[in-house]
Each structure stands twice: as structure tokens, then as C-alpha cells.
Amino acid sequence: MQIDQNTVVSIHYTLTNTEGNVMDSSVGQQPLAYLHGASNIIPGLENALTGKAVGDTLQVTVEPEQAYGEVRDEMIQSVDRANFSGVDEIEIGMQFMAQTPWGEQPVTVVGVEGDSITLDGNHPLAGQVLTFDVEIVEVRAATDAEIEAGTPQ
């Protein structure tokens, strides 16, 4: 069976950045299962997998606009430390959930200067070219419940 709309696909993958550093991998773990065509994975990877079958291996390089987008400056802002009541120590790299104009989303602390905390709401991989080494492990028709839920069950 080939990968197409409304198939459940299981893959093993290794994600690297342009420097060749491994950012994530499913190797040695359970494969990643997703519902093809339901936007469960980034568009550039999903598009490259269409038409592939079990046993296929491929390397896919995905530009930012087909991955997590470009870095958006409006998603980086400074806020007053008073917004973090109950948090004694704020350090670069910490993540919080924040109410933003785009809804509730995770933000990462990227700067701390006195009472000014700089937060970045961009996805941590925004602006990056990503390379996936992929092995297709399983492809099957999705159930009606999976199609309705938009995710494998």
C-alpha cells in the first residue's frame, strides 16, 4: 500500500540541522505514527512521503516555509518580571505557556536583564533548514474513527 490521504503511516526518522547535528530521532524507540493528510507532521515531510511504501528509505531536506516557518520578529517581546508571579528564578531556555494574540502557546525565555524578560513564541526550529532520514515501517488504511479524530488511535 502506498502512502496517500487517510493512511496511517509509521516511520523511523532522524532529524538533523544544516551542521549535521542530530536534533531528534525515533531510532531505537517506537516509530512515529501519523495520519497522512491531517497535518500531523510538517508539510514538507508529508509531501515527500506521498506515494512511498513500506521499506522505502529517503532523505528529505525541508526549507523553513515548509517546516516551522521563518522566525517572526513580532513573536519576540520583552515583558516585566512581575508577569511571572510565583517563579523565583527565571533563566534563559525556560519555557512557559503564554496567552498571545495567536492563542495560548509555549514561549521560551531568550533574555533576562534585570526585570525585563525577553520571550520568543516562535517554534524552536523556526527559520531552520531541516533534513530527515526516513524509513517507512508501516502503511495502513485509517479507520473512520482515526479520520474523524485526525490522528491515529
From TrEMBL:
PANTHER family reported in the protein's UniProt record: FKBP-TYPE PEPTIDYL-PROLYL CIS-TRANS ISOMERASE SLYD (PTHR47861)
Domain PPIase FKBP-type residue range list: 6-70
Protein name, as recorded: Peptidyl-prolyl cis-trans isomerase
Subcellular location: Cytoplasm
GO biological process, one term: protein refolding
Cellular component terms per the entry's GO annotation: cytoplasm
Origin: domain of life: Bacteria
The family this protein is said to belong to: Belongs to the FKBP-type PPIase family.
Primary localization: cytoplasm
